């Protein structure tokens, strides 16, 4: 037994988690997805969602007006259960605040003339690709975890390998509709209520309840022509990655670093033409996990081109939950397992979360890092080195993004459009000096100093003052006063800090 287990049952639950996951969670996840698929397909075909939308919004308004009438006793949050959210922890405030039911789960309209898709906030990324791609459309930034919701990505943030071109998820959104703390419904966009429009991203539901979002559409082609470029040497990796990220002819840019000196750079463009001998349908259940497939490129030591079906590309990290599933189902990439059970993979993150025990939580807390740090691209090399010295976690997810100089929580460095890179650290730190809290505080300080940002699905150990230094609250504070949010919603910090989550 080890330090994280107090009893034999805990030991079994940690080290044999896969038994439970394979026997119960995988079939359950499969059935759950099948039901969602069927339900959403029927709703989309019947076009019933737009007719019901107004009534559903009225119900949100009614709940808020009741809250006002009852004397605004406690602050409000959405009623979405904490275990369903794509985040390691469960928000504590869901138990104490008034839960507002925002049961808005459908795609409302695909307007190919205006090139806009109008969706409700609980629409997921899996639902969007499944619906839009067969129609020949897609959204410019499609964060790859199937269960991420539009509401969560707007109120938090979303990033993908096309972000160097199109920005973060908020930058592809054209308008938001919200119910405010007095129960009124407002729409905002760049031209209509612009201050509200720019304050919504990263506000974590603390300015109002989102009820609909209009997102830009771009034409979808059938494949992504992906070039894998194995790279050696820290300087070379930084140089090649920066060059590829600045080249807007690349529609997709992503890097996976396997050590300080070894990485694979992937650049891609959409295409309808395919060289059949280079077709790789990586989404098929029997295919190797994507990060393993990419790692194998290092051995080949030459550029490799593949054609990947667009939807398979988008969900390339889904089947192995990046590389997190190797800790939960260690033999998940075994050929036989893939052949016989791969079609049920992955277990749903929400169900994993719902069934994780305290001992597993403790284990992750002490021996695991789950963080995304967004830093200006010119600090790429220094940041990688610092993260290596502090955590020594590999693979690293490297994703460039463009940050326009808009008002709001994220202010671009040097008040102009700036290229950033998201460095994703997911895994068990091998650095001996790693201490969960101290190491993170050190990194958070570094990231603030270089004018970077932390993604807030992750644990943040910053104090309120440090948090305000990292994120510009000027416009946010103004809007909170103007919209009388104080009694209605907590501040962002009180929703995302370590103390607010269990
Ligand atoms: C109208 C509609 C609504 C949907 N709503 C939801 C929803 O709310 N929530 C939800 O989670 N899913 C939703 N889906 C998606 C669906 O449940 C799953 O994606 C299902 O597994 C798709 O099965 P398929 O392979 O037959 O799909 P196809 O469209 O045939 O898949 C095309 C290709 O993409 C690959 N692929 C598909 N899904 C994934 C994936 N998740 N990871 C990796 N590769 C993949 C397949 O292997 C295949 O090669 C919806 C689908 C539709 C049509
Ligand atoms: N590739 C990527 O970009 C990835 C992004 N993420 C992160 O995951 C999170 C999204 O996860 P997801 O499970 O979809 O969302 P969550 O349920 O975690 O919601 C995130 C926040 O958005 C608020 N919110 C959601 N819907 C509404 C609404 N209709 N009205 C008002 N507030 C709302 C929630 O408020 P409340 O607390 O009241 O429910 C919550 O504070 C984001 O923080 C994102 O950055 C994670 C992995 C990958
Ligand atoms: C910007 C990008 C691409 C971020 C990707 C972040 C993912 C790697 C994170 C988001 C949610 C996340 C923290 C999660 C987990 C792993 C890493 C995830 C998937 C897991 C599955 C690890 C195992 C845990 O027991 C538990 C099930 C609670 C969590 C759930 C959330």
Automatic annotation (TrEMBL):
> Which parts of the sequence belong to the FAD-binding PCMH-type domain?
39-220
Q: Tell me where the transmembrane regions lie.
A: 16-38
GO cellular component terms, A-Z: endoplasmic reticulum membrane; Golgi membrane; peroxisome
Subcellular location field = Endoplasmic reticulum membrane; Golgi apparatus membrane; Peroxisome
Give the EC number.
1.3.1.72
Check the record and name the Pfam families matching this protein: FAD_binding_4
Q: Classify the protein's membrane topology as the record does.
A: Single-pass membrane protein
Query: What Gene3D superfamilies does the annotation carry?
Result: 3.30.465.10
- What does the subunit comment say? Homodimer.
Q: Report the protein name in the record.
A: Delta(24)-sterol reductase
| Native source species | Rhynchophorus ferrugineus
């Amino acid at each position: 037994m080890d330090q994280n287990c107090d009893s034999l049952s805990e030991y079994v639950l940690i080290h044999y988690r896969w038994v439970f996951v394979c026997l119960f969670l995988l079939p359950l996840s499969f059935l759950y997805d099948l039901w969602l698929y069927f339900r959403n397909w029927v709703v989309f075909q019947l076009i019933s969602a737009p007719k019901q939308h107004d009534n559903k919004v009225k119900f949100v308004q009614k709940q808020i007006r009741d809250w006002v009438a009852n004397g605004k006793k406690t602050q409000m949050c959405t009623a979405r259960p904490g275990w369903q959210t794509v985040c390691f922890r469960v928000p504590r405030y869901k138990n104490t605040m008034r839960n507002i039911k925002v049961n808005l789960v459908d795609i409302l309209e695909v307007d190919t003339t205006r090139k806009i898709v109008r969706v409700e906030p609980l629409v997921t990324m899996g639902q969007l690709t499944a619906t839009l791609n067969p129609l020949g459309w897609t959204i410019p930034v499609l964060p790859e975890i199937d269960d991420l919701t539009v509401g969560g990505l707007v109120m938090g943030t979303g990033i993908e390998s096309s972000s160097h071109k199109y920005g973060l998820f908020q930058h592809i959104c054209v308008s938001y509709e919200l119910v405010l703390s007095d129960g009124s419904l407002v729409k905002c966009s760049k031209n209509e209520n612009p201050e509200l429009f720019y304050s919504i991203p990263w506000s974590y539901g603390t300015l109002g309840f989102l009820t609909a979002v209009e997102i830009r559409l771009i034409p979808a082609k059938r494949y992504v022509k992906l070039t894998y470029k194995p790279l050696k040497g820290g300087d070379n990796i930084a140089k090649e990655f920066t060059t590829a990220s600045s080249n807007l002819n690349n529609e997709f840019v992503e890097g996976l670093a396997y050590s300080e000196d070894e990485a694979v750079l992937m650049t891609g463009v959409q295409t309808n033409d395919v060289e059949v001998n280079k077709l790789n349908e990586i989404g098929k259940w029997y295919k190797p996990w994507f990060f393993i497939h990419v790692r194998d490129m290092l051995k080949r030591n030459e550029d490799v081109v593949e054609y990947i079906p667009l939807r398979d590309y988008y969900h390339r990290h889904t089947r192995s939950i990046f590389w997190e599933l190797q800790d939960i189902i260690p033999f998940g990439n075994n050929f036989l397992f893939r052949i016989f059970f791969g079609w049920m993979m992955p277990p749903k993150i929400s169900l994993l979360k719902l069934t994780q025990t305290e001992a597993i939580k403790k284990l992750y807390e002490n021996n695991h890092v789950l963080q995304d740090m967004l830093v200006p691209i010119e600090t790429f090399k220094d940041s990688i080195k610092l993260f290596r010295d502090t955590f020594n976690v590999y693979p690293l997810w490297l994703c460039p993004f463009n940050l326009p100089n808009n008002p709001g929580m994220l202010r671009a460095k040097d008040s102009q459009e700036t290229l950033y890179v998201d460095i994703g650290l997911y895994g068990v730190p091998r650095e001996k000096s790693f201490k969960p809290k101290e190491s993170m505080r050190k990194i958070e300080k570094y990231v603030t100093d270089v004018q970077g940002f932390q993604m807030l699905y992750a644990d943040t150990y910053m104090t309120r003052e440090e948090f305000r230094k990292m994120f510009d609250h000027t416009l946010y504070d103004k809007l909170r006063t103007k919209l009388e949010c104080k009694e209605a919603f907590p501040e962002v910090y009180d929703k995302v800090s370590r103390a607010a989550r269990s």
